[in-house]
Design goal:
Number of strands of chain A: 0
Distance between the termini of chain B: 44 Å
Distance between the termini of chain A: 31 Å
Oligomer: heterodimer
Largest interface: A-B, 28 and 26 residues
Largest sheet of chain A: none
Number of strands of chain B: 7
CATH architecture of the largest domain in chain B: 2-Layer Sandwich
CATH class of the largest domain in chain B: Alpha Beta
Largest sheet of chain B: 4 strands, mixed
Structural class of chain B: alpha/beta
Order of helices and strands of chain B: HHEEHEHEHEEE
Helix content of chain B: 25-40%
Shape of chain A: globular
Helix content of chain A: 55-70%
Shape of chain B: elongated
Number of helices of chain A: 9
CATH architecture of chain A: Up-down Bundle
Radius of gyration of chain A: 18 Å
Number of domains of chain A: 1
Number of helices of chain B: 5
Radius of gyration of chain B: 18 Å
Strand content of chain B: 15-25%
CATH superfamily of chain A: Ferritin, core subunit, four-helix bundle
CATH topology of the largest domain in chain B: GMP Synthetase, Chain A, domain 3
Chain lengths: 257, 163
């Protein structure tokens, strides 16, 4: 790895790891979701997110000379650069819906920005992924609207899930070590700007179902953000998840389909 | 072993006979995923652009291309997967929409201004032709399909997602 590539490598690793890890959590609903349509939906979303991690890992392969499989299956859990948010256990269905919605909106603003990146391969990949992600956002936004204002239980669960998930989800916008270089080189506009655009979008959706977020008068979060993941400071939830993800690969080394 | 030189046109004709593993009424050419064919003496290089990034059928398609070309006498076959290229349903061959319809899958409309605008267009039931249908789920049995219900003939059907 050359020093010049380090900022792009850092950003791509964070993007790819977020996709892989949330995709794994989504896959945990296969066979367990409350209704068949949601079982199918989360199984599809899991496949999409893991497919998107493959797109980003494929870009990394040229920079790191490390295959997507090696990135996914041969790294230690502390070497992952996903935010903590995506690694937390799936919780109840309300938490899953709120997490996916917050993630989908973050992807939306990030991919729109990356589609204008000065780095050509990232621009192309973002354009490809954006089209597929549009379906995720339609799905999760509709679920927030429906479950946020359905029954007493659904309202209670959605409020509780949002109160838990919102501070965690700020970790999606944790500053990168090489953030200044990436912004200066116009690879992306920076996490602070993305977070502002994201808050504007989620406030509108949650507001429609009377869920308020802890924000000050200028829409800045009043809660403590759950940072650490981008620097490899993870919780043991990721350790467990990676152990599950690696189980087959490590027990049958070199296995293929 | 010396391989027999093969023309690019011959390779395209062979690829036209390989069915999509999930929707076998369409060939890989009908799907519009073959973006380039290059031949150099007996060596053949085929570039595929995946439909959906996470499509699990891609691995099968890759093997099908390799095995079919080898069975036609090509000994050096390279399949490149171009993840950077962006596939859209507008790349489907003209007759692909008719074949999907006959197979019971509502074909995607040409892409409009935006995805919400495209999704707002009426969807015709492939069984009875009625436009009295409604979306049941954005997702279906494979990444490229979504679920609809027909209010006229009361059957569920799949439609190819506009992308």
């Amino acid at each position: 790895m050359t020093k010049a590539n380090a900022p792009v490598i850092e950003m791509l690793t964070a993007l790819a790891d977020d996709e892989l890890v949330i995709g794994h959590r989504d896959s945990e609903w296969t066979g367990y979701a409350p209704i068949l349509e949601e079982d199918i939906a989360f199984s599809n979303i899991a496949q999409d997110e893991i497919g998107h991690s493959l797109v980003w890992y494929t870009l990394l392969e040229r920079l790191l000379q490390r295959s997507p499989d090696a990135m996914a299956f041969e790294r230690q859990w502390l070497d992952f650069r996903c935010c903590r948010f995506v690694a937390y256990p799936r919780g109840d269905f309300a938490y899953t819906v709120v997490r996916q919605y917050l993630f989908d909106e973050a992807e939306h603003v990030r991919l729109e920005a990356l589609a204008q990146s000065s780095y050509g391969p990232i621009r192309d990949a973002a354009a490809r992924i954006m089209k597929e992600e549009a379906y995720h956002l339609l799905h999760s936004e509709a679920l927030v609207e429906r479950l946020g204002d359905a029954t007493d239980e659904s309202r209670r669960r959605m409020h509780a899930a949002t109160a838990t998930a919102f501070p965690q989800s700020l970790g999606l916008f944790e500053r990168l070590e090489h953030e200044d270089v990436l912004v200066r080189e116009r690879v992306f506009p920076g996490n602070a700007k993305l977070q502002t655009a994201w808050i504007e979008r989620i406030v509108a959706t949650f507001g429609a179902v009377s869920i308020t977020l802890p924000l000050d008068g200028s829409s800045k979060p009043l809660c403590l953000a759950d940072y650490g993941g981008r620097a490899g400071d993870h919780t043991s939830d990721l350790e467990q998840l990676i152990a599950d993800l690696h189980m087959v690969y490590q027990s049958v080394s070199g296995a293929s389909w | 072993m010396v391989s027999v030189p093969i023309s690019e046109q011959a390779v395209w004709d062979i690829l036209r006979t390989i069915p999509d593993p999930e929707i076998p009424v369409l060939s890989l050419i009908d799907l519009g995923i073959v973006t380039r064919v290059r031949t150099d003496d007996g060596a053949v290089e085929v570039t595929l652009c995946p439909t959906f990034s996470g499509c699990p059928a891609l691995h099968q398609m890759r093997m099908d291309v390799e095995e079919t070309l080898v069975s036609h006498g090509c000994t050096q076959v390279t399949v490149i997967v171009d993840q950077r290229a962006s596939w859209t349903t507008d790349l489907l061959a003209e007759n692909a929409r008719r074949r999907l319809q006959a197979f019971g899958i509502a074909p995607p409309p040409p892409r409009g201004e935006s995805l919400p605008a495209t999704l707002a267009l009426p969807v015709k039931c492939p069984h009875c032709g009625s436009s009295e249908t409604k979306l049941d789920s954005e997702f279906g049995a494979t990444l490229c399909k979504q679920l609809y219900l027909c209010n006229s003939c009361h059957q569920a059907f799949e439609r190819f997602k506009p992308l």
